[in-house]
Amino acid sequence: MPYTTGLHELGDSCFAYLQPDGGWGWSNAGLVVGDGASILVDTLFDLRLTRSMLDSMLAVTAPAPIATLVNTHANGDHCYGNQLVDVPEIVASAATAHEMTEVPPAMLAAPIVWAGPLSNWVAACDLMLAMDIDTVVPGHGPITDKTGIAAVRDYLAFVDAAAAQRHANGIDAWEAVRDIAREVGASPEFGGWGEFGRIAVNVDTAYRSLDPSYVTPNFVEQFRRMAEIEGATGR
């Protein structure tokens, strides 16, 4: 399936709305069209993007209006467009609903929350790998299948184990980031991945999970570290 902006039919009245290149803020959404009603999975980062998406869906939602909106999580690029969807029901986990009240669009000026532990993400990947599925619409990036899930799982498991080893050896988190980044960069499996600088946040998340007293750097320092890693690897 081509990785192009817009609505893509997956089959069985299921659709994916894709936003290349899948980086920061460029998330995907899903649409399931039923008999007279549809379910929308996630909105987009702002009202303009969400309006464009909803307009592109009109051909299929006109006879089956969106009746339910499901928010997969509270990151702004998956829910800040909610107000444009006039539905009687929005479905989310209790944790997601709570986080939405803590991270409203007004907090864009103070950005970003990353959650862990990484082992929870690995467990989620394992759960999906055990399902009888052929097509996967990720939160970001192109349509994939179970191989895409397996690749993300292997990456997260690797980072989690590498961070735990360095933490046990008393290595500072930022030193661990740079050390693990060199190892990941040399890996044939992960070395070519985009947004390589995210390793800084991944390792920091692992350290925070390992030590409740660990203090995460502020968001400006987090982005500085990501930029430094990106620059060091020529990404």
Fold topology:
Layout: E1 6-11, E2 14-18, E3 29-33, E4 38-41, H1 47-61, E5 66-70, E6 89-91, H2 94-102, H3 118-129, H4 146-168, H5 173-185, H6 199-210, H7 219-232
Parallel strand pairs: 4-5, 5-6
Antiparallel strand pairs: 1-2, 2-3, 3-4
Helix pairs in contact: 3-4, 4-5, 4-6, 5-6
Helix content: 40-55%
C-alpha geometry:
globular
Number of individual domains: 2
Strand order of the largest sheet: 1-2-3-4-5-6
| Residue windows where pLDDT falls under 50 for at least 5 positions | none
Q: N-to-C SSE series?
A: EEEEHEEHHHHHH
Keywords:
about 240 residues, alpha/beta, Metallo-beta-lactamase, Chain A, 2 domains, six-stranded mixed beta sheet, 7 helices
Structure report:
The structure is a single chain. This protein is an alpha/beta fold. It has 2 domains: 6-103, Metallo-beta-lactamase, Chain A (4-Layer Sandwich), CATH 3.60.15.10; 118-232, no CATH class. Helix content is 42%, strand content 12%. It contains 7 helices and 6 strands. It has helices at 47-61, 94-102, 118-129, 146-168, 173-185, 199-210, 219-232; strands spanning 6-11, 14-18, 29-33, 38-41, 66-70, 89-91. A 6-stranded mixed β-sheet has the order 1-2-3-4-5-6, with helices on one face. A hairpin with a 2-residue loop joins strand 1 and strand 2. Helix 3 packs antiparallel against helix 4 (146-168) and helix 4 (146-168) packs across helix 5. The chain is globular and about 60 Å long. The two termini are 26 Å apart. 26% of the residues are buried. The model has no long low-confidence stretch (mean pLDDT 91).
